[in-house]
Amino acid sequence: MIGWVRLSIIYLVSGIGGYITSAIFIPYMPQVGPVPAQMGVLGAMIINVVYNWEYLQNP
Questions:
Q1: Where are the domains of the chain?
Q2: Which residues 6+ apart lie within 8 Å of 34 measured at CB?
Q3: What is the structure's pLDDT at 31?
Q4: Taking a C-beta distance cutoff of 8 angstroms, is the pair 14, 56 a contact?
């Protein structure tokens, strides 16, 4: 797939970006948990499948 280094970078960047976005739109409600980072990784995997759809043998 994308390798552990790229996966770690996507996880960290999407987690930080998700919490910054949450802090901007909901400033007085603290957020905890790994959900933004997990959704970022899920989005990256979906984009990877869509981008490489023709190369997959049995999608």
A1: 4-52
A2: 15
A3: 83
A4: no
The answer for residues whose C-beta is within 8 angstroms of residue 4's C-beta and 6 or more apart is none
- Give residues with Cβ within 8 angstroms of 2, minimum separation 6: 10, 44, 48
pLDDT averaged over 10-residue windows placed end to end, the chain, 59 residues: 88 94 91 91 92 82
* Predicted pLDDT at 55: 86
Alpha-carbon span 7 to 42, nearest angstrom: 10
SS3 of residue 3 by DSSP: coil
* Integer Cα distance of 59 and 54 in angstroms: 9
Which residue, among 29, 28, 36, 31, has the nearest Cα to 10 in the 3D structure? Answer: 36
- H-run or E-run covering 11: helix 4-25
